[in-house]
Write a structure and sequence with these properties.
By secondary structure, the chain is an alpha+beta fold. Helix content is 21%, strand content 39%. Helix 1 runs parallel beside helix 3 (42-52) and helix 2 crosses helix 3.
Amino acid sequence: MPKLMDANSIIKLIVAKTGRSEVDVRGLIEDKKEKFAGLLKDDGAAYMVARELGVDVDEEKKGILIGDLVKGMRNLTLTARVLHVYAPKKFEKGERKGRYCKVLLGDATGQIMLTLWNDDIEKLGKIECGSVVTVKNCNVGEFNGKLSLTLGFNGEVVLAEGIDESVLPKSKHISARLADLADGMQNVDVFARVLHVSEMREFERDGEKAVVVRFEVADGTARLQAVAWRNLAEKASKLYAGELVKIEGADVKKGLNGLELHLGSRARIIERPVAPFEIPGLEEITGKKFSRKKISELKAGLENIEVVGEISGILKGNLLYNFCPQCKKKASGSTCEDCGAQTRQRAVVSLQVDDGSGSISCSLFGKAAEVALQMSTIEIANKLKEVGAENLIAELKKRIIGRTIIVRGNTSQRMINPEEIEIIGSDALLLRHKEEIENLLKILSEMNP
């Protein structure tokens, strides 16, 4: 592990780089120590003076140790292991709104929390728990009586290179395949493929409203339900079938239908990670293959087809209907007339889709409707209360007409006009160009082995 340069070495470097006298530099160091009321040692004070004078001490070494940090230090570089990444949270204080994400770092001398604010969260990228990182241009502050780090101007978090990891603490996360999970396991990390994402649901606990999303994952060894709570629910709701994810910091609990992964405030979802082992594709796991067709090729009675086209219209409708989760069918009111269960509101929309060869009506329900409209059922319900269905559809037309969408499902005759056919959609995806290019390359490779 790299060590902090001693004060004498830093002084010589400052003199060489700036042309200042040694007496002048030592005076600046003593002033800095006095400012920190004796809490700062010669090495740390010399390091701070060097940075303030624009002397890049990091050219000579890779950073300061956590145990040498003192409140007020600025523009530091340190190297440590990522011990845990907490789920990003939203905050609202007065007129200020934003997000923050906490990252626990550790080296041979201690641990410290790095807080990333707003756009800085994206600088974490796909860095995983257990990775060794170098944090550049960070500042030392204090929160709840403990030292903490934030990124300064142009600060960044990057994977470290050439570091002796043997002296760094290990992450306490447990990496496992889905088939190896057991009830009660905590801080579990898994790689898996998303099979299905349910609609976001709202619930109330201790007088507070929150949201939850269920989604199914598989890795070739097992399939199970994952449950994302509160802050992670919004991210989970945007996952799509077939996407590869890494779930970090989940807890394993026994649900009604087997084991479940629960993603709370300590969990995290990383999209499109590099998995250490091969995970089967969606078609192999589900045994269902969708055949891509031109709209002009469609006829009634086709199953498991998909079309790619632009949204050219939204048909009139209520956008929501009552759905019984027990009977799995439409209900007329808040209580199911068949089983007596409480119904839920579910999104529904009929889109006109055009692929250049023709145009077709697509009826989408639940999550598929949410994806197409880019609104959750909760958001649709709230907006309907404000403006009504007609005005909301007018707003949606401005936002989504012209977007490219993939619709999967079966074809049938339209009830209102049997001479026309429609797609009853089971899934909808917004076109992702990178995935489309990869699919085309795969098809070409199969054609030309």
